[in-house]
Each structure stands twice: as C-alpha cells, then as structure tokens.
Design a protein that fits this description.
Length: about 70
Amino acid sequence: MNANVGKPDRILRIIVGLILAVGPFVTSLGIWSSSTMMYGSVIVGLVLVGTAIFSFCPLYRIFGIKTCKM
C-alpha cells in the first residue's frame, strides 16, 4: 500500500472529514434532520479522516491519481 495522498490533500480531508463526522451531533442544521443524511455524513467523514491518516485513497489508485510527492 503506497502513499498516494499528499500533505495539502490530507489536511483538507481531515478538516472536511471532521466537519462531516462531528457536524450532525453539534448543530441542528436541516440537512442533517434525516437519519439517512446524518449517518451518511458520519460515514463519509470517517472515511475521509481514515484515508488522511493512512495517506492512501483506494479511489485515487483506481483512477491513477497521486498527490503525494514521493
């Protein structure tokens, strides 16, 4: 499993992932009023944070994208 996610990409993934994972629990925005949207948001957020931590994105590998300079 080679790293294919660069540092700016990782930072953005962590920020967006945390917003999506924590947002439904700390705000009462209408977009998260549906349980499907709430759980979907949390799952997508956790996936983004996970790919940032491991510096590996399976979709990047499928499409041949590499933002890492290594």
